[in-house]
Amino acid sequence: LLELNNIYKTYKIGTVEVHALQGLNAVIEKNEYVSIMGPSGSGKSTLMNIIGCLDTPTEGNYLLDGLTVHSNDPEKGKLDDNKLAEIRNQKIGFVFQTFNLLPRATALHNVELPLIYAGISKKARMEKTHSTLIKVGLGDRIYHRPNELSGGQRQRVAIARALVNNPSIILADEPTGNLDSKTSAEIMVLLDKLHSAGNTIILVTHEHNIAEHAHRIITLLDGKVSKDSKTGKG
Amino acid sequence: LLELNNIYKTYKIGTVEVHALQGLNAVIEKNEYVSIMGPSGSGKSTLMNIIGCLDTPTEGNYLLDGLTVHSNDPEKGKLDDNKLAEIRNQKIGFVFQTFNLLPRATALHNVELPLIYAGISKKARMEKTHSTLIKVGLGDRIYHRPNELSGGQRQRVAIARALVNNPSIILADEPTGNLDSKTSAEIMVLLDKLHSAGNTIILVTHEHNIAEHAHRIITLLDGKVSKDSKTGKG
Ligand SMILES: Nc1ncnc2c1ncn2[C@@H]1O[C@H](COP(=O)(O)OP(=O)(O)OP(=O)(O)O)[C@@H](O)[C@H]1O
Ligand SMILES: Nc1ncnc2c1ncn2[C@@H]1O[C@H](COP(=O)(O)OP(=O)(O)OP(=O)(O)O)[C@@H](O)[C@H]1O
Ligand SMILES: [Mg+2]
Ligand SMILES: [Mg+2]
Fold first, then answer.
1. Among B14, B45, B150, beta carbon nearest to A45
2. Tens of pLDDT along B11-28?
């Protein structure tokens, strides 16, 4: 499904270069359930942004579903912005580490957005948005704006928004970081079910018990894969 | 040190009332080490904002160091905004659940701010800011802005900012939510040391192993204290 070859991502701060990813290689098949772990600053969110077509590597090749998203070879067809936006909206659901909600919109409208972009009718949008917010336990918070929600409630709005369009690839960056154990367990049940339904789940987490829901754990260190092993599940 | 009596906090969303705190009582002595736990939405951050003089209760009395911060009785001296700002700047260090960093300022300037408000000289500010950023492992990230930092690095800038003015009361709302186990352990060593040095630590966390660093755990449920017990430490 997705193939990352020799991926480099370098940022410049003034004259200093930060090597966020340094020659990363990974292949993830359709319907895999993968956790990504590693120290703070090791490149996990940078990797997720590249996988999710939100950012491009400085060097390296990224193939998604057979399409060349990015290539060192200018001859190979690279995807244009419209195509990338289409993939992001239809194939990928992204839960951001820092939520990235629209601050002046209600939880309802934040979750509704991907469906508006996908051209879904108002009636179908309302049904789907309501049911997804209920699934993450926020049925009684739909008209609250982000600053009228607790940290864990904002996180769940971000999760609902990522799932509302039934994406086949779910990228979740620390989805339970602000949740108590009971609510975390509810979210993991949701992700486990989506995996059983045939979707691909890639989740970044610092917590081992959350990572163990997946069938494989990829560990990053200094922008490279330092370990890649099965969890014994699946 | 701080005394909360029958604290209520009610929000209004349209016609709906949200009872974030419903008759909460707590007394915390000087140099205590307290963890606050409870489900998502149970009122922990709301409680922290009231303790930290960032928000006022709808009803109830709050005494801090003998001063009446808020009282139902209009006869009792309530603190004015200048006095509250002074307490916040000098006595209290607050690590916010969602960091609340200035997005266009560097890590250095974000951490420097409380010292500027306290009227500290430039030379002393630079020394203190640098050493605090080094303590949280960000010595090589001081010129990065928040969007040029990883989630865990932003969290550590928020921690550094809370500690830079040597406050005697440290309020930390989920300080390790975005940190891997090694970095979490480093931050907890820092907090444990600050406690041994005589300061008062109140930390909200969802993780039991982090909560167990404290000597007492207060558990909230639906805006009230549901449990209040010693951890066996200290
Ligand atoms: N400004 C606001 N307006 C309306 N409701 C609010 C507001 N702020 C918080 N709430 C509600 O008050 C309740 C308590 O919020 P609070 O942020 O204190 O929870 P919390 O215990 O910190 O949760 P979490 O663990 O998810 O961070 C929540 O149900 C939330 O929706
Ligand atoms: N826009 C940027 N400009 C400069 N440096 C950046 C930028 N974004 C990230 N970095 C740096 O790249 C490195 C990797 O960042 P990344 O966000 O991928 O880490 P992470 O593994 O997700 O960490 P965490 O667990 O703390 O979230 C970090 O050291 C960070 O400081
Ligand atoms: Mg990250
Ligand atoms: Mg909170």
1. B150
2. 998 889 999 999 999 999
